[in-house]
Hints:
By secondary structure, the protein is mainly alpha-helical. The chain has a domain at 44-121: Up-down Bundle (AhpD-like). The protein has helices spanning 4-21, 25-37, 45-59, 62-74, 79-93, 98-115.
Amino acid sequence: xxxxxxxxxxxxxxxxxxxLADNNKIIxxxxxxxxxxxxxxxxxxxxxxxxxLVASAVLRCDDCIKYHLETSYKExxxxxxxxxALGIATLVGGTIVIPHLRRAYEFWEALESHYxxxxxx
Length: 121
């Protein structure tokens, strides 16, 4: 069985390198803004990741959902916390979010398999 986590991270890393290699100032600034927005601030990183996860689910961006799931996992959020946040996303986004919810559950299971049961901290 393919390692969904490794495949996603390899693809993301390879393509981000290509995007950034073009030296497009706007794209580089957006990447920098994104990185800085999720750093510790008045809100802690865990809260920001859950906010990113909910927004990504409502906007139906599977890559974004995967990214925020993995970061949430690495930050030590529990499956229960993530599932509660995904419940809010489904409530806000409506039933059209359900296919993304399925893939989110699948990816969380892949994270547990990839890193071992429990969180990656």
